[in-house]
Write a structure and sequence with these properties.
single chain, 364 residues, alpha/beta, Rossmann fold, DNA polymerase, domain 1, Ubiquitin-like (UB roll), seven-stranded mixed sheet, three-stranded mixed sheet, 20% strand, flat, binds guanosine-5'-diphosphate
Length: 364
């Protein structure tokens, strides 16, 4: 999974990126890397993985990961080539979800590009750039399709109607996700365009330290403004979170969080929200060599889950041996679970549940 961080300059994007991809914040025995300065691979925090590790004692533990891309340089006019925006807009297209950071903190030392703190105006500025970029894509496609439609091609005519609808919506300042298109048409004509404003979005309200728990008036405004979008709003004190990740030990970080009245780092909350935004869940494999978390869609079947490990596993899928996470922990080992008759054998139709510990049997 890949998520792109967008927002105006100086709203806290890089701070958030650094804090998410800070090696110190990641458990020491987990592999971690930053691919490029603006791309990081973030481990998905999951206490269940640590629990399984303590039970199995594997050689290594591999958490699920999310790739985060810091998309800097989005400013007014980016879609028209202002700043570095246009170049970065291309990067957003490759992401699965968007984390839209909004400045909801006041600080005279941090300059706002438009002179005052106003998350709603900021959001509209960014949305407009993204919509204009999408409009460009839609118009290009529409031109091609219209030529074919003219020849009497029924499919092209159908597509033309949908594209025209998208164009009208975008021109009226709507994001693609807010335009009503039938599921069928969306699948056939809209999805392949990989439009930026069609991607699920999570609004991250960057607040001052004192508002980390309850938010503030700016956050309330944002919540109201996005109510119709069916999007999630997350309150994060990004600057404070960054300070926390600088602390050396887990205990120190936990104490800082306690002081603030938080139960977990915002990065954990953020990644969890991104998971639910994308309808993702986790299953585990647990052997002596490796205990590992895998990411799958919520409605994935057992063969699809196997396919995440290797496509051959999916093709040759025979059956899955499944232990519910709670059973694994309650009985303490795979052997004991088996003894108790709690290991299930599931077939091709099985819908994997969050936390399942699985073995796959397959033909090669
Ligand atoms: P970007 O341009 O969106 O990547 O913004 P940066 O992450 O570089 O942040 C811009 C400035 O705002 C930096 O000086 C940060 O230290 C500061 N900043 C970021 N988040 C916060 C915050 O939550 N509170 C305050 N007061 N300052 C912040």
């Amino acid at each position: 999974m890949k998520a792109g961080i967008v927002g105006l300059p100086n709203v806290g994007k890089s701070t958030l990126f650094n804090c998410l991809s800070n090696a110190k914040a990641q458990s020491a025995n987990f592999p971690f890397c930053t691919i490029e300065p603006n791309i990081g691979v973030v481990n998905v925090p999951d206490p269940r993985l640590e629990k399984l590790e303590s039970l199995v004692n594997p050689e290594r533990v591999v958490p699920a990961t999310v790739e985060i891309v810091d998309i800097a340089g989005l400013v007014k006019g980016a879609s028209k080539g202002e700043g570095l925006g246009n170049q970065f807009l291309g990067n957003i297209r490759e992401t699965d979800a968007i984390l839209h950071v909004l400045r909801c903190f006041e600080d005279d030392n941090v300059v706002h590009v438009d002179g005052s703190v106003d998350p709603i105006r900021d959001k509209e500025t960014i949305d407009m750039e993204l919509q204009l970029k999408d409009l460009e894509t839609v118009e290009k496609k529409l031109e091609k399709v219209a030529r074919v439609a003219k020849t009497g091609n029924k499919d092209a005519q159908k597509e033309q109607v949908v594209l025209q609808q998208l164009k009208t919506g975008l021109e009226a300042g709507k994001s693609i996700r807010a335009i009503t298109v039938s599921e069928e048409d969306r699948e056939e004509f809209v999805r392949p365009l990989q439009l930026i404003t069609d991607k699920p979005v999570l609004y991250v309200c960057n607040v001052d330290e004192g508002s980390a728990v309850d938010g503030n008036a700016y956050v309330e405004k944002v919540k109201k403004a996005v109510a119709e979008e069916n999007a999630e709003v997350l309150v994060l004190a990004v600057g404070t979170e960054a300070d926390i990740t600088e602390l050396d030990t887990y205990e120190e970080r936990q104490m800082f969080l306690d002081d603030l009245g938080l139960t977990e780092p915002g990065s954990a909350k953020l990644i969890r929200s991104a998971y639910s935004l994308l309808n993702l869940q986790t299953y585990f494999t647990a052997g002596e060599k490796e205990v590992r978390a895998w990411t799958i869609p919520i409605d994935a079947t057992a063969p699809q889950a196997a396919g995440v490990i290797h496509t051959d596993f999916e093709k040759g899928f025979i059956r899955a041996e499944v232990i519910a996470y709670d059973d694994y922990v309650n009985y303490g080992s795979e052997a004991k679970v088996k003894e108790a008759g709690k290991m299930r054998v599931e077939g091709k139709e099985y819908k994997v549940k969050d936390g399942d510990v699985m073995h796959f049997r397959f033909n090669v």
